[in-house]
Amino acid sequence: MLILLTAHLLMALAAPTLVAWLGRRAYLLLALAPASAAGWALSHTSAVTAGDGPVEVVEWVPGLSLELAFRLDTLSWLMVLLVGGVGALVLVYSSAYFSPRAGGLGRFAGVLVAFAGAMLGLVASDDLLLLYVFWELTTVFSYLLIGHYADRKASRRAAMQAIVITTAGGLAMLVGLVLLGHGAGSYRLSDVIADPPGGTLATVAVLLLLAGAATKSALIPLHFWLPAAMAAPTPVSAYLHAAAMVKAGVYLVARFAPAYADLTAWRVVVLTLGCGTLLLGGYRALRQHDLKLVLAFGTVSQLGLLVLLVGYGTRAAALAGLALLGAHAMFKASLFLVVGVVDAATGTRDLRRLSGVGRALPITATAGALATASMIGLPPFAGYVAKEAALEALWHDDDGGWAGAVVLAAVVVGSALTAAYGLRLFWGAFARKKAPAADGFAAVSRPSLVLVAPAMTLALLGIAVAAVPGAGDELLSPFASTYPRGEAGHLTLWAGLTPTLGLTVAVLAGGLTLFLLRDRVERAQARVSRAPDADAVYRRTMRRLDDVAADVTAVTQRGSLPFYLSAILVVLVALTGWALVTGTELPATVRLADSPVQVVVATLVVVAAVLAARSRRRLKSVVLLGASGYGVAILFLVHGAPDLALTQVLVETITLVVFVLVLRRLPPYFSDRPLARSRWLRLAIAFAVGGTVGIMALVAPGARMHPPQSVPFPEEAVAFGGGKNIVNVVLVDIRAWDTMGEIAVLLVAATGVASLIFLQRRSGDIHRLDDVDQHAEARVWGGGPDVGAALRVPAPTPADGRHGREATGPVTVGMAARRSRAWLRAEETLAPQRRSVIFEVVTRLLFHTMVVVAVYLLFAGHNAPGGGFAAGLVVGIALIVRYLAGGRYELGEAAPVHPGLLLGTGLFLSAGVGLVALLAGGEVLQSTIVDIPVPVIGTLHLVTSLFFDMGVFLVVVGLVLDVLRSLGAEIDRRAELEGGDAGGSEHGVGGTVPRRSGTSDGAASARASGATSSSVRSTEEVAP
Amino acid sequence: MIDPDMTPNLLLVVVVVALVTTGVYLLLERSLTRVIIGLVLIGNGVNVLFLLSGGRAGGAPIVGTTPVEEMSDPLPQAMVLTAIVITLGMTAFLLAMAYRSWQLNRHDEVQDDLEDRRIARMAAADQPAFEDDTQDTRTDLEVEAAEARDETGDREDEQEVVRT
């Protein structure tokens, strides 16, 4: 069974390639898949009849009690034969049906074979959930096949309608299946049927199951998707919408009927829907002009009859139902294929336009005649045997009561309608008409034999099986005998002069009369104003649904970020608050403070935060934020977390710089928002959240139930991690996976920053000194008033200084002398009014020192405060200092690498170390300690996690470099291109502020320069 | 290091409350700069909360420097450390967004989503959410069936005809 399914899957996957190679001939090869399924079923025939069919169980998802369980009993055997046999014939038919230049043949073939596989799994599965999986798979493939001509609106709508309706039913069925499986304590289908759960639960479950069956088998009132699905290519109509998929609902009803057919709810639903569908389908079929629509409504009608018979509950009716199931698949698929032949040969399916086709296509017409005879129930065809058995079963059902009589009447009338539309179909397709429509058809092209053979095969099978009714009896009765009620029925060609023979004659006579009076019937139907059209109701419902969805969206999706955040926060307060109130109690005692320092610092933190929230000026707010952050760093230190304090200080510094880099472009003040009410609301939410978190902070320490995870850390850190700084060992060893995830986040953030600024590339060019246009005036951070120009010693003219490379003779010497005197390499590129000698000198002194400190932190971090994060941040600050002192060319000279390279290398190094440990036979990210004796220094104690930390280091450096290059250098460059002031002095926040705020030296030097001080004053003291 | 005395430090609780409250207040603003400042404040507050939940203060968790019994809990510290750095990354990203917003709109206010506003307008005006081009559903089935044609044909030479 699994092998068969796998074969279908592989065939489906290979189908597009095969079709590309072999053209439509590939369909012949693909037909092997369903044919093998039919062959497999045939080979097990005797075992199945003996009640000993193959069983296969493979565990799949034990947690969901989902098993790959398959079982072949009589019902499954019959369905597999139909699915496989008709599937193979339809594929053969398709190989001649489609034009060789038709589009999408590969996809069509793949989906069709996949559907055959899904259908096979559906009918053979012995697990409720597995059944559902295959059920929905057939829905999806049917959707794809109906929508095969995706460029046609009608196709798309029909496909959408079919999937919406069948999926809705499928979901209802899933609930029913789960209820049943839960109630029975087993999801094995055979167990559930053998020992069905009872009570209200079972009734609800059964109703839900029937909802699924009704949608799938197009029972009223949801039958309308099936006629609309005729938008699919004809082979699909023949296979899915006549022989296979729509039978899934019948299969489900038959599967559960032995267990639940006596349930009142079951009887009411099955009998009502069955009779209604049988009559409505037949009635509607009588006035269709499109041959496929005649067949579609006929199929609806027959599906109603099938559900009625297999769900009726007596053994005889069940046997008749099974026989009709097989007969219907043969004659209906055959008729669809015949209609396809006529359609392909003449170019139309309109029975008003067709005339005299039977003479032109005698073989096709013969096949059509045989299939029609079977459909309307003429002896000696399979349809006759089944229908005769059905009438017999209903006539002799003594327990049926009035309901049985009604059903019998419905079946008689329905059969008469069937006979009428069957005759109408054959007449319409093949007869020579007295007055065919004027716009007839051009010519009849002779179809190839391959196209006619499948229909003929199915039609002949209809006689062949009818010739041996006893064999059918023997093969099918094992399943019918599992039904609880009634005498066993019999299939026979001649039962003698019984009352049912009289009924059959009446049926045929009625059908013939209706056919002869077809024009009047049509006119009468047209006159009767149609009751509310189910299709129209469906469309109206869908539109109302759209409307309601839009209204709900309008209420919930307001598009306002504050609204969304408020909603989230209110939920936080409500849920957490409720849990806190009901589930916890406040601690009996609290410690006021650990030390006086803590009190002072905490006051600073709180006051700075409140002032930051109140400030209307951006820069002030950011500086206060920084103050609060530095305070938090001291709180960390007091608490006994030096690593945190170090990191916090470094991060606060960088945050401050980044803020100012961006703020120089933004207006100095927040916009005025005098909406007092909304501010009060915000304040209320803020206090609510703050209060909730406060209670959480009080409760959380006391909520501890287990000893901390970190109890064994001190020993482990030294023994396995090879380090004494536990926090660092946790980061690079014990919880290295977390750290790896976090540096990946940093990488993403850095990339995000770069892409938001550079937009089209990962990052821009590196600004090197060699790229500077030697003739241009120094203009980095230029613009703005240069008040101090008059006070400066005139700068050397370009001829003797900055043209050093081209110049010759003594000038070159002068340039070399200047270069050697320069404090910073790129200081010449700065606009003169932006330079500060003191800052340059300090930078020159500090930069290398900071890098050395960073290297120390990196290496010492394993045993003392420090580590990759801190070291990376220190290098980042060193780079910031270089940038602030010398502009973007200085940054390019200080770090002539693309940040992407740093980030990538860093992540690779961290991950790579983990893999090395794996290769060495340890776990991923396990540390190895190596002691290398080095002369003079002593023993070098090397832990492999150091390389992990180096990766962290590189990622952090890459992040800061990315930020500086994007928010610093690139914004500078653009401002210069725009010709404006990079400092954005039009807004008042001086471009100098970021450069000077780093060190107090900078501020001092700023005051020394008149130009800068005026700019500073304009930002900090003068309100615009 | 297991300290049965898990009494919370009231001062730190006050700090947490203040940072979170001011942070949330700013978070609900329209100006992206204020939102970012609010986020950083909340981040600091939650970091302190982490530390607070870890237990009482102690010495630096470095073996050899502090006796094991007096150490502060290193696990929350490791978590907070990465949180601090990630807050930096997020701040940088949001600031880049603020800059981009300024570049496009000359301000950094968070605007309402246009599509959402459109839907709200439609709902307020009670307009239908669909375009109804198939009011006449009566003849749909037949008309559509008459139009639906499969790409059939047996003649290989049709290909040639189409090409010429």
Automatic annotation (TrEMBL), chain A:
What spans are recorded as compositionally biased (Gly residues)? 980-991
Domain NADH:quinone oxidoreductase/Mrp antiporter transmembrane residue range list: 125-400
Does the record's keyword annotation contain Ribonucleoprotein?
A: no
The signal peptide here is none
Q: Which GO terms describe its cellular component?
A: plasma membrane
MrpA C-terminal/MbhE domain ranges (all copies) = 681-758
Extent of Low complexity compositional bias:
995-1017
* Region of interest called Disordered, as start-end residue ranges on this chain: 978-1024
Please list the residue ranges annotated as the MrpA C-terminal/MbhD domain: 604-667
**Keyword Transport annotated:** yes
Q: Which residues form the NADH-Ubiquinone oxidoreductase (complex I) chain 5 N-terminal domain?
A: 63-108
Localisation per UniProt entry: Cell membrane; Membrane
> What membrane topology is annotated for this entry?
Multi-pass membrane protein
Q: Which GO terms describe its biological process?
A: monoatomic ion transport
Q: Which residues form the Na+/H+ antiporter MnhB subunit-related protein domain?
A: 838-961
Q: Which GO terms describe its molecular function?
A: antiporter activity
Entry's transmembrane regions: 74-93, 105-123, 129-146, 158-181, 201-226, 238-257, 263-281, 293-312, 318-339, 360-382, 402-427, 448-471, 491-517, 563-583, 595-613, 622-639, 645-663, 683-703, 740-759, 841-860, 866-885, 897-920, 940-964
Print the keywords alphabetically: Antiport, Cell membrane, Ion transport, Membrane, Transmembrane, Transmembrane helix, Transport
PANTHER family (alphabetical): NA(+)/H(+) ANTIPORTER SUBUNIT (PTHR43373), NA(+)_H(+) ANTIPORTER SUBUNIT A (PTHR43373:SF1)
Official protein name in the record: Monovalent cation/H+ antiporter subunit A
User: Which organism was this protein described from?
Assistant: Cellulomonas aerilata
TrEMBL record, chain B:
Q: Which InterPro entries match?
A: CPA3_antiporter_subunitC, NUOK/Mnh_C1-like
Give GO cellular component annotations, separated by semicolons.
Answer: plasma membrane
User: Signal sequence span per UniProt?
Assistant: none
Domain of life, per the record? Bacteria
Record field: transmembrane: 6-28, 35-55, 75-99
Quick check: keyword Metal-binding in the entry?
no
Q: What is this protein called?
A: Na(+)/H(+) antiporter subunit C
> What is the protein's species of origin?
Cellulomonas aerilata
